[in-house]
Write a structure and sequence with these properties.
Number of domains: 1
Shape: globular
Structural class: mainly alpha
Largest sheet: none
Helix content: over 70%
Radius of gyration: 16 Å
Distance between the termini: 51 Å
Order of helices and strands: HHHHHHH
Strand content: under 5%
Number of helices: 7
Length: about 190
């Protein structure tokens, strides 16, 4: 593992740990990790993951702003019909995008690259809004990304996603507890 990958992993770990406990300082760490991961993903012929990392930099700015302004924001839920529509739309978009990735970029694992990228866009947006189910998306996405980065010989990033899976479970439990304590009768 090279120096860029080590820093990417370190910043990524800081991001996910701080997000799990709802500290806005997760966003600068996430942005730094994303910048480095964009470079590494592009070098590994994962163009959708590289583009996703650029999105993460933008979302880090948005997350910082939203979590800073909404000091009293609490975890909540997104309606099920939005999840169904989102997943169907992502699957439909993957069909032409995987063909494009194969033809134009000789992309490695274009279907997994595309699906995880599109669903990560949704999960990141949900995280900036403290939607509890963002953790469920991340658990599914991170599981796929462990495999994707492992087969691309980016073992450090694959391990980061394994650790992220554990933290996602902690984040899910933590946000659920907070939600339940806020909605239980006093």
């Amino acid at each position: 593992m090279g120096a860029i990958e080590r820093w990417c992993v370190a910043f990524g770990l800081v991001y996910v740990l701080l997000a799990a406990v709802r500290l806005r300082w997760c966003w600068p760490a996430g942005g730094a990790s994303a910048i480095l991961a964009a470079w590494l993903s592009w070098e590994a012929h994962l163009p959708m993951q590289a583009a996703l990392q650029v999105w993460y930099v933008w979302m880090a700015v948005q997350g910082w702003r939203r979590w800073s302004q909404a000091a009293t924001a609490e975890p909540g839920w997104w309606p099920l019909k939005y999840h169904v529509a989102t997943i169907v739309a992502c699957a439909a978009l993957c069909l032409p995008l995987t063909r494009l990735m194969q033809a134009q970029f000789a992309a490695a694992s274009p279907w997994v690259d595309c699906a995880t990228t599109l669903l990560s866009l949704v999960a990141t947006w949900l995280t900036t809004r403290m939607r509890i189910e963002s953790w469920l998306y991340w658990i599914a996405i991170d599981t796929a990304l462990v495999w994707l980065y492992w087969v691309q010989a980016l073992r450090g990033i694959a391990v980061l996603y394994v650790v992220s899976l554990v933290v996602c479970l902690f984040g899910l439990v933590s946000w659920l507890k907070q939600y339940r304590s806020n909605t239980s009768p006093a």
